């Protein structure tokens, strides 16, 4: 394994260290990710186990129902408002972080684009990255 993935919120009140490799890195163009990011998509790294995550600080949580019907929980900083991570009721072991929350965001390398069916014409993602209209089969 490479060095741990570290990062957190904009003000430093929340910090994480993840001692695992991500199982997926994706740009998501669903409407929820557009609204949360304030742009055309959200960029995420998903890790296979919460046990590999050391999380310091207290996030505020917001639950929403995803297109799948499952609950998606967003963790963000109550002080600066920066989005930091997501968890999923249907896949409780997974831990997903926002790429921009990384201390070294150059470690993010998108492997796919999801929910292109909701993509906006002005949001131009890398044409070389595989695209899926919704979520690809797991």
Question: Care to describe what's here?
Answer:
With about 140 residues, the protein is mostly beta strands. The chain has a single domain (about 5-120), classed as glutathione-dependent formaldehyde- activating enzyme (gfa) (Alpha-Beta Complex). The protein has 1 helix and 10 strands. The chain has one helix spanning about 30-35, and strands spanning about 5-10, 15-20, 25-30, 40-45, 55, 60-65, 70-75, 85-90, 90-100, 110-115. It has a 7-stranded mixed β-sheet with strand order 6-7-8-9-4-3-10. A 3-stranded antiparallel β-sheet has the order 1-2-5, with no helix packed on it. The mean pLDDT is about 95.
Give keywords:
mainly beta, glutathione-dependent formaldehyde- activating enzyme (gfa), 7-stranded mixed sheet, 10 strands
Strand content: 35-45%
Share of helical residues: under 10%
Tally the structural domains: 1
| CATH architecture call | Alpha-Beta Complex
Q: How large, in whole angstroms, is the Cα Rg?
A: 14 Å
- The number of helical elements comes to 1
Unreliable stretches covering 5 or more consecutive residues = none
Structural class computed from helices and strand pairing: mainly beta
Protein name: Glutathione-dependent formaldehyde-activating enzyme family protein
Family: Belongs to the Gfa family.
GO molecular function, one term: carbon-sulfur lyase activity
Pfam families: GFA
């Amino acid at each position: 394994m490479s060095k741990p993935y570290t990062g957190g919120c904009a003000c430093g009140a929340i910090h994480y260290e993840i001692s695992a490799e991500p199982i997926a890195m994706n740009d998501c163009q669903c409407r929820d990710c557009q609204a949360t990011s304030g742009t055309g998509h959200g960029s995420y790294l998903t890790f296979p186990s919460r046990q590999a995550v050391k999380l310091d600080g207290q996030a505020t949580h917001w639950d929403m129902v995803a297109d799948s019907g499952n609950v998606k929980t967003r963790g963000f900083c109550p002080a600066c408002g920066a989005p930091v991570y997501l968890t999923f009721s249907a896949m409780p072991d997974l831990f997903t972080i926002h790429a921009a929350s990384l201390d070294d965001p150059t470690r993010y390398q998108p492997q796919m684009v999801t929910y292109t069916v909701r993509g906006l014409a002005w949001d131009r993602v890398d044409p070389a990255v595989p695209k899926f209209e919704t979520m690809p089969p797991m």
